[in-house]
Specification:
Layout: H1 10-19, H2 28-48, H3 52-64, H4 81-93, H5 109-122, H6 127-148, H7 151-154, H8 159-175, H9 180-191, H10 206-227, H11 243-248, H12 279-292, E1 299-306, H13 308-311, H14 321-324, H15 328-338, H16 348-351, H17 354-360, E2 363-366, H18 369-373, E3 381-387, E4 392-397, H19 410-421, H20 427-438
Helix pairs in contact: 2-4, 2-5, 2-6, 2-19, 3-4, 4-5, 4-10, 5-6, 5-8, 5-10, 6-8, 8-9, 8-10, 9-10, 12-15, 15-17, 19-20
Amino acid sequence: MGAPLSDDGFTTRLLDKLHHIRLADLDQRTQQAARHHLLDTVALIYGGSREETTGIAEATLAAARPPGGLPVLGRERRADVLDATFIMAVAGHSLEFDDGFSPGAAHPGVVTVPAALAVGNLVHASGEAVLEAIVAGYETITSIARTAHPMLRGRGFHPTATAGVFAAAAAAGRLLNLDADEQRNAFGLAASSAGGLAAFVQGGDDLKRLHVGHAAREGVFAALLAKQGAAAPPYAIEGPKGFFAAFVDRTDVTGTAIDQTWGITQCYIKPWPCCGNLLSSIDATLRLRREHGFSGEDVATLEVDTYRAAADRAATPWTTAASAQLSFPYLLATALLFGTIRLDHFSGAARANTDVEAMAQRFSFHSSDAMNARYPAGRPSRVKITLKDGRSFERDVNDALGSPSLPLSEDALAQKFVNLAVMVTNETSARALHAAWAGIAEVADIGVLFATPR
């Protein structure tokens, strides 16, 4: 039998924690994390706003209804709050460069931040209120995704899409000033919109990006419905036939699953635009290359021992840009040959590089019990590189650059923002955008931050 439902259960504990979020009361680390993850996701929305999938999403909506009144970052056409959320979420996930939460295998930013921005703009929220909503959204998705991991992913679901709808509902609910009962209803309504199959690993790259748009939009819609008085099952997350029961066959989830620390402080920010599970191996490879001064041409063999979710990418081809971002051999070959991984490394010309193909033939991948035991507390990898002259070097890492234990510097975060924003504007304007968004906590109405880049 499952644990009895009570007023001290998972949903109640989560609601209580969300209720007490006040930016001024949060410790410095949590405040800084909120600002960093906001900036990172905003940059990704700008960078992904001109991607083909984003254009398809907007064109589809434009064919169905007239423009709305809200601006959409990086786009000219205005939208209503639901469509603005949808388009910005799709854009934010389009470059495979967004933040993540390893213990739940989810990407919190792209479902939370677009919802907070769209609803915040709708209600003329302050920057401080938007940051509080972002903390609430991250707390919600990390709590749910961590509890559902690894079975959620193992059953073929996309954690960002399935758990992300609750994050958007939390962020939107915060900005709509939902009381506890209304927010509980919002979660109950959102639960019935949770979904998303990980079939995209076999192709159909657009689906992965559209998943997060659906989750973010439906979470906002749930909060709007709850604000108007729509009722839903009070324990739709942990109750019988609720989210955990339906998706991961768990009816034993209690309030103890709500962590004491803030989920946003446990999330990573990507230094390279690729699958988060592969970042540790890339980091180890680049460190060895840098420390010992060899080039890709010097490498005879490369051996990787890592956890299963990462090793599963060893056979992923690089026939499309999206598949290349998930391809273990392509990414390591690119890292060895060029000393970094950039967005332009996924162009058709880059993927056709015969040097990459030749390099990838020298790699082997393994997933040992020892490595699997270290996941998901870490994202471990052991990389051994043997050179053609017989020398060999090895590096064991438990996590990658950009993780909470190895955070990116302020300068690196700022440069990432600029590199993405220049995809829609010039460098001077990109730096001005960074400065404006970095000061969001002092803004009385976030609408002023939505000025179209020139």
